[in-house]
Sequence to fold (341 residues):
Amino acid sequence: MEYRHLGASGLKVPALSFGAGTFGGKGEFFSAWGTTDVKEATRLIDVCLDAGLTMFDTADIYSNGESETVLGGAIKGRRDKVLISTKATFRFGDDPNDVGSSRFHLIRTIDASLKRLGTDYIDLFQLHGFDAKTPVEETLSTLDDLVRAGKIRYLGVSNFSGWHLMKSLSAADRHGYSRYVANQAYYSLIGRDYEWELMPLGLDQGIGAMVWSPLGWGRLTGKIRRGQPLPKTSRLHATADAGPPVSDDYVYKVVDALDEVAAETGKTVPQIALNWLLQRPTVSSVIIGARNEEQLKQNLGAVGWALTKEQVAKLDAASDVTLAYPYWHQRFFTERNPAPV
Fold:
């Protein structure tokens, strides 16, 4: 397993991380992802550690906290061998303060996550979304206090706009608060919006990407093709409207290119899609998920080799789209404002 620095921090993380969104299976939305219990999770973590994958990502809202509970049970007795990443900000309860990035909510939700995970520290804590109703200084000072208290080691964000992140970084620098070093962002061959602004920001500010849903909400598993019904186990049956929007024709065009590269390399479609991401600028780790050991081992096969420049170019061309303004205009000024990819 390759290890990379998490942004500009001194922490090294595996190129692949494991997403524990399939743990727990509480509620209609998350049960469509998976229903892994502690026993099954323990075995999956065994496989991960054997392969050098040591980072596990979850969130308080995943299965209403059950994902954190299952993960905590599965790593019991080997906390020192793993890195834990979790997130909070979204509503977690009926109380008016059970949401957001206020000092009140962050302290309470992080203490609850620590209890469910069975640990006294979180390696990487990320805000799950931007809270425009709480001053960034309140959020940052709270997180800085939690870092100084030893409850959190590194900070990150998720699903922020470029200006959300830059505003926060500027405030952190101005007040001397702990800086965000990670951005957990959606990025895939059929969702390249991350490249427009968040990637250049990451390069400029030393923010490493933790990529979520690298297979495009299950569309790049190799099981979705023209004229074929969705697989019975696809999450798209239950959660298609909640996933990143993308047209079927666009998906089929990209899958056609993936099939061509698969024939050239002898690798699977998911392995190629993941390997493409691992070659992109700012990507620190790609978060993979798996319902079972077979899926996990398949995804682990995305490391240890590299696509050729020609193969990358073929995938780039198949997945290229017209950018929104001002990004399409900036492509005319690459002499002094070069695109990162």
The chain has 13 helices and ten strands.
